[in-house]
Amino acid sequence: MSELYESLSKNQDLKLKILVGLNIDRLNYQFVEYEQNRTNKTNNEIIESYLDSIVKLINQDSWYDKKDFYNMIKTIIDLIQQDKIIIRKTLESNHAKLYIFKLKEEQIVRPSLFITGSSNLTYPGLNLDREFNVEISDYGTEDAEKYFENLWNRSIKITEDNIIKQRLIQAIEEKTILKKITPFEAYVYLLKSYLETYSFKDEHDQLMHDLLKKNDFTPYRYQLDAVKQALSIIEKYNGVIIADVVGLGKTIIACLIGAVLNKRGLVLCPPTLQGERNLERSGWAWYLERFGLYHWEVLSIGKIDEEDFVQSVKQYRDIEIVIVDEAHRFRNDKTLSYANLKEICRNKIVILLTATPYNNRPGDIYSLLQLFVVPKQSDITFDNDLELIFSRLKTTFEKLAYIKKYHNSNDQEKLKKAKEYYKYFFDSENINLKEVDKLTRIESKKIRSIIEPVIIRRNRLDLKKHPQYKQEIQELSEVKDPEEWYFELNKDQST
Q1: pLDDT tens-digit series, residues 26-44
Q2: Contacts of residue 256, Cβ cutoff 8 Å, sequence gap at least 6
Q3: I want to staple 243 with a disulfide (CB 3.0 to 4.6 A). Which of 183, 219, 457, 481 is the partner?
Q4: Tens of pLDDT, residues 282-323
Q5: What structural domains does the chain harbor?
């Protein structure tokens, strides 16, 4: 529709009848055929599915916050309200693409023509995907009109029913990115989200202080607050990613979480970090002993790709928590080791430890999230379908990478494709890599905003700026605290 916007807005005699045959696929943002037979779906169910599809489509197209997009949607709503655009929905799924035009006498000798082919009337359909369409005006027009009218007369009225029309407009104006909010409403929402995420649980303070003092660890406030934040995240999402930089005590934070939750757990870590319980500061085994987690197990992730690994883990009864150290090793969700890890984490509280959760690909963080978040039922974002969001991000990053790689290629086909991708994003074929880099940064920020509710990530500079933590970080730089020295010593050996 965006490709037709200018013509639609200028045409005063417009009368456009749109017969919708398919909805929008939630996974791939493509038009696909749904099982929508008249025998198993009521009219109301078809209408609900269509309205949901429209919301998904608009949220997709509005991914890039452009003024033209808002103007386009406003114009379309106005045309719907004026009954210049009439929409109906077929009872059954229909994959036909048919565009019939009633022409003025000065335009063509014949009164009508139609276009049929493989593409939708979108920028990708018209420009990028090399679709094939045929324009016909000298024969077959009556058959095409008869086919359309037959479907039209048997379809569900959307905009001709005032109640459904208002529901459609209301869905667009209130359930999409087009929803108008005041600055105060935006502030209140962000404040609410912040407070929910950082709702600390002070009742565990004494337990954590006692455990740290008992084992000659300094009870740093920044670590105790991280534990409380993690507990709040776990309570809401059943998992957390602890991504503090090396040396800030991720191991201590994880052990304190385990002690507070008071459940049996399993630690999966590189073999060099397993350690032994009776050896001083010899890895995870020693830390679990110090924090009273005697009934926990420590296993090597080096064996996780073995076929019987999952079965060997199941012999440990009542495991409720899984800690994965160096979780960034599992960015690739297509491997046997990832599949085994996901099976082990199923229905467990998952604590992921990594200093590098994101490595330039949306799939990196999505793989980690899937270990404790149900992709199509997540509420860490406005849209509860993470699979859909990351599918879109993946496509965007791939196209931006293609532009950067082939923007000056000698291969004319690759250069042409790079320009087409650039035009898709920036409405120009004159490639400016600064614009590509700018959009890449914007998309990266979107990924960070998605994971913010479930991740704890701080560096020393962050903590130095915090008035309550500044002195603690200064002490750490002057005197090495006995926290993760063994782990830091062995990190290089285990990677």
Answers
A1: 433 343 444 444 446 788 8
A2: 208, 211, 212, 223, 224, 227, 291
A3: 457
A4: 689 989 988 989 899 999 998 898 878 888 888 888 899 999
A5: 2-180 (3.30.870), 204-357+484-494 (3.40.50.10810)
